[in-house]
Design brief:
The structure is a single chain. Helix 4 links the parallel strand 4 and strand 5. The chain is α/β, with parallel strands linked by helices and about 150 residues long. The chain is built from six helices and five strands, in the order E-H-E-H-E-H-E-H-E-H-H. It has a five-stranded parallel β-sheet, with helices on both faces. About 45% of the residues lie in helices and about 15% in strands. The chain binds D-ribose.
Length: about 150
């Protein structure tokens, strides 16, 4: 489990963000809610950038699973696109537990993206749990993930 979970959304993901926070705290994680603080219309890239900046500022902890991010919008698509523009951020849009587990185990994903309009709250909780409890396997997967850093 990470010691800190960063979480942010837009209006399309606000209800799911609000629902997930208590469960994350109950699981023993420190949660940093990076907004928004109401369900009014807002622009997801602003919140993706905010969370990625905080994750990258965590340095090694943002790379080794000690600090992980959750980004939620209506589909998860916009958040994943915006987050993956940041070097050092590996954001994975997941719609099932298997994807979430593999995103950590093989891709060393440090941000999970969810679509509030795509999955229900129960499945979202299970996906989040799978993401937070899986560990990066390293080895050949590390070599592949390191190749991201060589991409333009
Ligand atoms: C907002 O209506 C919606 O476009 C946004 O939440 C997200 O799904 C974008 O990818």
């Amino acid at each position: 489990m990470p010691k800190t979970v960063l979480i942010a959304s837009d209006h399309g993901g606000f209800a799911l963000k609000t629902a997930l926070i208590p469960a994350l705290r109950e699981a023993g994680c420190a949660v940093e809610d990076l907004g928004p603080d109401c369900a009014g219309s807002c622009d997801y890239p602003i919140f993706a950038d905010k969370l990625c900046a905080r994750l990258l500022a965590a340095g090694e902890e943002g790379q080794n699973g000690a600090v992980l991010g959750l980004l939620i919008c209506g589909t998860g698509l916009g958040m994943s696109m915006a987050a993956n523009r940041h070097k050092g951020v590996r954001a994975a849009l997941c719609t099932c537990e298997f994807m979430a587990r593999m995103a950590r185990a093989h891709n060393n994903a440090n941000v999970l993206c969810l679509g509030e309009r795509v999955i229900g709250q129960g499945l979202a909780q299970d996906i989040v749990r799978a993401f937070l409890t899986a560990n990066f396997e390293g080895g050949r997967h590390l070599r592949r993930v390191e190749l991201f850093e060589k991409q333009a």
